[in-house]
Design a protein that fits this description.
about 220 residues, mainly alpha, Arc Repressor Mutant, subunit A, Four Helix Bundle (Hemerythrin (Met), subunit A), 10 helices, about 65% helix
Amino acid sequence: MAVPPRGRRVQQTITQLRERILGGEWPVGGRIPTEPQLVAALGVGRNTVREAVRALQHAGVLECRQGSGTYVVSTDELAPVVARRLSDNRMAEVIEVRRAFEVEAARLAARRRTPEDLAALDDALAAREAAWDAGRVDEFVAADALLHDAVMAAAHNPMLAELYASVGAALRSTLAQAIGDAPERHVDHSRLVDAIRAGDPERAAIEAAAFLESPPGA
């Protein structure tokens, strides 16, 4: 059997690594096998594995942590692109992207929510409010992310959820920037949950849009 050219071997290895990440074998936040283990599992040479891993590091999918190993930090290359946009202070663009995702998700959730979805929304909302009342900003940001994820799940659109997940971490960092330590900036999401529970798509969309207004002058 002919041996594929080196460039093609590297590309095939990148594809194999990406498939295992997307398949959940190596989840986001998890550590991938060591280089010798990858060599044995994939049946390619050390240099091929090294180049493939390096390519995924440059793409923002993997991250090498000195003395610890290599970790999955994203499921695709889209999240790092959004993160770079954030670093360029393009806040107005980011808010517009969030509106595109979250307003439609709220509308769909009001039409498709199940009792299980409503229970998840209630739990996330309660955790969000408790964290805010206690002044635990980091916990509040995490709970707010869970609430928005619950709305997205209630929309029951796998493609929308997948796209949102790929950029969600970068998009949600805008919340931490916006909140700071100012309690007057708290935004009530109970009306959004109520609209979804009531099965009112238009009111849900209005509520979702209300807390994602573009900054003045945008």
